[in-house]
Amino acid sequence: MTENISDVAFSPQQAGRLAVDMVNGLRQKLAGGLITNLPKVDRVVTPSRSGELITILGRPGHGKSQWMNWLSKQDLKSIPDDSNEIVIRGTWEQSVEEDTLSWLAGDSNLSVTKLVRGDIDDKEFKILQMSAARRALAPMWIIGHSNVENQKRRKVRPRMAMSEFSRAIEYICNDATPTKWKPKSIYLDYLQRIRPETKGDRREQMMEIVDQCKDLAVSMGCPVYLGVQAGRQVDEYADKVPDMGDGQETSNIEQSSDKMWGLWYPIKTEDENSFVKGFQVTQHLFFAKLLKQKLGEFPVMFSLYIDPAYNKFAELEPNR
């Protein structure tokens, strides 16, 4: 319930002033606008704004976490050294250490596969340590669970609800350090793993969590990126990119999202060396489709190069 009705009633003068303020904030890059550092993508995608909910939709194993990791790293690059802005990542699927390995792999040019096997020599281990030192200086906080710490304490992995996640953000911003931090962007990986807090069937619970994610974007004054698992029906599509209505157990993302991405990693579904949309299917072919964006062009398909071992993306040209 709205406590003060004046908070939701805006005069013509207020509406005009707020719209100009929003544009001015974008001009000064104070509104959280994301640059992907992929030129063709950046020419189409409008800067992410405070209060936006941006969903990343894909089948299991089709790059949701990798795409969000990449976007969060590009966000980090735009934060000045003397800023109080931070990027916050929430992980329900991977542990904090697993999530961080992706960052270290990209920074150190050590394959994440080698890292998880412990298959590195002394020289490579020193490179990893230097990368970890750089990670310690990067203004990115993670909210989640640690397999290492849980094993030490003999504790079961916690499954956070959105209210607990929000309290963790408040702690980081206000109490964790003497600095009062301001979120530049928040990444949530992923919707179906977030613990519901309401009664009702699964679909109703997921709809409520999506609303909570949108509320979080508004209250924190930054964009929120939400990973969403797509339903099995996508496996039957000719082009296996999820559509806006393909979110598993929820249709609310279609209405609540300001932007939506659909992801497809063809090596998971097609024969290697076959051709899809003029591209040869390899371990490095990846498609990201902008399904929706308010006040901007859509749908637009982007063909990308992915290196999952190092969490890197680049653009591709057709090679029939």
Briefly, what is this?
Helices cover 36% and strands 19% of the residues. With 320 residues, it is an alpha/beta fold.
Structure overview:
This protein is α/β, with parallel strands linked by helices and 320 residues long. It has one domain: P-loop containing nucleotide triphosphate hydrolases (Rossmann fold, 3-Layer(aba) Sandwich). The chain has helices spanning 12-27, 39-44, 64-77, 96-108, 112-117, 122-137, 147-153, 162-174, 202-220, 252-256; strands at residues 53-58, 85-91, 140-143, 182-189, 224-229, 259-264, 275-276, 279-280, 285-293, 300-307, 312-315. Strands 3-2-4-5-1-6-9-10-11 form a 9-stranded mixed β-sheet, sandwiched between helices. A two-stranded antiparallel sheet has the order 7-8. Helix 9 (202-220) links the parallel strand 4 and strand 5. Helix 4 packs across helix 6 (122-137). The longest helix is centred in the middle third of the chain and has 19 residues, at 202-220. It is globular and about 65 Å long. The relative contact order is 0.16. The mean pLDDT is 86.
